[in-house]
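#struct-help
A.M.: can someone run this one for me? Single chain, 324 residues.
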Amino acid sequence: MKKSGKHITMKNKSIKRLLFGVVMSALLLSACSKSDKATDDTQNVAANKVTEEDSKEAEGKSDGKIEKVVAISKSNAELWLLAGGELVATTDDAMELEGLSSDTQSLGDMTKVSLEAVVALEPDLIICFSTEPSQKALGEAAEEAGIKVFYTDIDDFADYDKALKELTELTGREDLYNKNSGDVKKDIDDIIAKVPEKNTGKKYLLLHVSATKSKVEKNDYFASEILNNLGLENAAGDDSAFNELSLEAVVAEDPDYIFVVVRGDEDKALSSFDELFTGKAAWESLSAVKNGNYYILDKDLFGLKPNARWAESYKQAYDLLYGK
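D.P.: on it. Structure tokens below:
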């Protein structure tokens, strides 16, 4: 599995402040040399005070504290909020997230975020996907501009756990890591432990459908890991026969279960899927369909990265497979 992680380029924001302090100190000391001794002593104290306060401020700004954060996508925005952070800006799909400040700005579509708009916010950190081309390009350009970038690539719970661990280290909120990952992991383990061994080994297909295209998910998709951990076997696996999804390939495999996750407009996606698959006579011959094991999964739990709701995804899948 690919792992999430951070790639950080440090930016020393204190340089200008330190230079300002040095110049101010020099000017004050110069003025002192032109006054009498009593005035010299007073002004030297003032000069020393300015230099000391400025150095402390510069030191505080160079300690790597993250205050202004931009997250590209709903998933990345939610990750930062779960870590206890706040956002100065994020994308349209994330603007309704619970815990988002009313001051958070929208950057528009997650695939069309302007680098200029991001840089203008002077962020301390940008959180974006490493696997989405437009976001990866934006992140690399931001790094060139001296901005820190945290890349995410979450294919399973372990990836989520690692990303949240690193983000909570930045916010100093270990308690939120324990709550939003440690406790979730315990719930997942409890669900997996209940899987009856006699029902394991049955095959499934997990399909992503949209108005324009349908595809089968292999084992590198996070929802596939959930189903695999609940005792099923991915009929697609890494089989090249499913690189181009067709009804013929599905009929040939005849899986025990078929799961569908919708992308985009649900009505349009399912209408297109019906025209190519479910509306055909051959579809009705499938074992999964005849046995009532054809399911449309919750998009929030199986289409988007579930983050702190990972255990909910496991529970919903478990209930479908083995009953409540």
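A.M.: thanks! The chain has two domains: 1-193, 196-322.
D.P.: also worth noting: The first strand starts at residue 69 and ends at 71.
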